[in-house]
## 1
Amino acid sequence: MSSYMQKEEFYQHLCEELRQNRSLYPYYKLVDGSVSQQQYRKAYFLQRLEYIDKYVDLSQHPVIWDCGCGYGSTDLYFAMNGVPSYGTTIEFYADEIEKRKQFWQQFGDSSLFTYEYANVFDQNIPEEKYDYIILQDTLHHIEPLDEGLRIFYKALKKGGRLVLIEENGGCLVKRAMLFLRRGNKRVITVHDDVLKKDVLMGNENVRSEAQWREAFARTGFVLDEDSVHYIRRCYPWRFNAHNMLQIIDLEQYKSKNKKLCHYAFFGLNMVFTKK
């Protein structure tokens, strides 16, 4: 199920979709820009999918909640491999999902992906329902964080996994970029026209590995130490049409240096278990 070719095939279909549906472009900039930029973004996309494949056992027919599913690409990948999933999203993402499901129906059963426009704090989520909860670029938006983590903990079955894919809040360059963009205003209130109310949100409130460890431990989660995975050290200009895999290998070699990981890598992945 989890062969690299399957992910590569999915990626190629995704690029085909993006050429047809330009409304997705602001989020998925995979088919525009220089060759270096395209290869950089492809490496990032495929590494995230590879990580999910490694820690989500699709062969066991799991019950999956993709919280903050965005446009639903991960769930469409699951659907193309015959695995149902449930996604929740807010903001503008939901407007495109039905159109996307129509495109992907030619390759598999996209109806296996179901979704809802919902704020996690408003949902009546059954306890111990999910085998996996996936949070990709989502948890830094959820506030109050501890309250959100308690909801996820209760929603997981005993032994269930929460797969966290995030920006690395310890990265010095990332921290500088975010400070220039939003200063120290890490939590904001925004009005959601669909929900018809104000919603508290993290304003790209990314955290370091140590901060995530501390927050999850407060809730009772246990970190799978082998799952800690840093990605994206090299900048786009290092990539060309032929060296993507070599750069990924180089980055993983450099990731053995923990200090370099904490301060220089842009991406951080972790898996937490409900014991």
Note: Residues 1-5 have pLDDT under 50 and may be disordered.
## 2
Amino acid sequence: MHFKNKTVFITGGSRGIGLEIAKKLASEGANIVIAAKTSEPHPKLPGTIHTAAAEIEAAGGKALACMVDIRDENQVLAAVQKAVDTFGGIDILINNASAIQLTGTLSTEMKKYDLMNQVNTRGTYLCAQACLPHLLKSENPHVLTLSPPLNVEARWFENHVAYSIAKFGMSLCTLGMASEFKGKVAFNSLWPKTIIATAAIEFAVGNAQMMQLGRKATIMADAASAILQKDAKTVTGNFYIDEDVLRAEGVTDFSEYRVNPNTPENQLLPDFFI
């Protein structure tokens, strides 16, 4: 029970990777605060904060469902306070919430640009700022952000400049805050080597056939668990890739993570920014 009595504040955890991480940590004893905006069923995507809370409790953890739009500072601050009032503190922040639209400059409406930057970069910054006073009181405080390594190359921007700016902004929070709070709070990023088959990604960028060339979200959950067990005073400022994390933990067979067991490893689709 690596996370017994630890409290995890996770944004956007009502489905997909965020929910899998939440369930993994819950199975290891964590209290989970789900801070997401889906309180009523989405017409095209599964899961709400309430169904997520039920799955987390079924996995063995305690859950607190908070309806939060992380663009709204007051909602974030209220959810953080509710988490502290309920569980006594915050030990881990997982910046999972993200908005995505893979369109070029002439096809991206400014309201979509604003959405991606407010959720991704600003939301990550805001949640870190709100949680830090409590993280600084924790024995082994971690902030884990689901964002890519800082591979600043034109090919990762040219087809979706707005999204890339917003996503790399999350990584810049990791870079800067890891240095700012070195020795006090760990700030790391985690990103998948391959595409991860989630309903949100299928809806946004792909199709069911494309998902057959990806991995399950459980690989990200297992990698996150491994990172969050490490010493926050020394393990910080890293941009981890899920497969690399698990290889360092001794994992050599990744077949259990494939969506389609018949897809060879060398035919899995790499994720963006890799």
Note: The mean pLDDT is 94.
## 3
Amino acid sequence: MLKDKKIAVLGAGHMAAALIGGMLKSKLTESKNITATRRSQEPLEELRRRFDIHATTDNKRAVRGANIVILTIKPQMAAAVLDEIAPVCDKKQLFVSVMAGIKTEFITARLRKPNPVVRAMPNTPAFVDEAATALAGGAHATEADLKTAESIFRAVGKVETLPENLLDAVTGLSGSGPVYIYMVIEALTDGGVKMGIPRATALRLAAQTVYGAAKLVLETGKHPAILKDEVTTPGGTAIAAVHELESKGLRTVLMDAVVTATKRSKELSELYG
């Protein structure tokens, strides 16, 4: 799908590196077709050496002739970068944005052309090809544009397509979600240490437990409540622990975390885009 496409990746940081690595590893494209940009020369050079791609500090140079432009710049830089590249953009170029809170209509307005824009919200497990990404197409994006964007993000994990008005909620759920789970893993580890398990062992057990539980949900298709009931035997250890978690409000705390992060995403959208 991307074999003959020229791809510009603007603001090439960690997420950009994950996407470039995913595209190359899955053979969606070749390194010669990718040009990455970044203001800092040293990390840009490191990226060039790592993937054998083209690299430049000149955004306009990268965008000229590109078929796909992936925007991985910080939201607060969106207006300046889009204004910078607008004069050299072609209306047929597909823009794929991973900028949190920046709406597709803002990007189109800044480009001053009816470019197709697809907004994406991946998360950091993209670094190990296990991302959860949601996509939303802008006013000028076709089904083919969405398929193209989907192919990029499928190279680093799973993809869902949603209306754009739900992407702030996605940011609160899966975009910020790894942070919640890291804290769960850390807390489980500390619990194991408190009960006498060596920390390194406790960490491996906790992380594998979270990974295995998630895999069981995804592969069996069973509701988490059913899987929970399957291991909570009458009078057993699991139901005693469930009672403690319920009494301390675990569900409410996690739900509130998603709501709070969603609200913050909306605030950022109003601030920058």
Note: The mean pLDDT is 96.
